[in-house]
Amino acid sequence: MSKRTPGPWKIEAGGNTTIYGKDDIGVIGGGAFARRTHPEAWANLRLAAAAPELLDALAQLVGCIDHGSHDPSSALEAARAAIAKAVGHE
Q: pLDDT: is 87 or 43 the higher one?
């Protein structure tokens, strides 16, 4: 697996919208951005910001299946939180 900027990532909106990773390192950003006039772009940013958590949660769920875990509750909780972040319900 290739290296990535560790999560969690966060969005800072303003004149320029940027997604920041751990230690406030810019991951994705630039350009003027209007949240209300570009809802699809905002949804894409939320999804991108949730990407590290989504990947980690998916890896946990796959691990539960691969290893026959009888209690995937922590993996499911992580997955639900990542999905909520991606769709803007955190």
A: 87
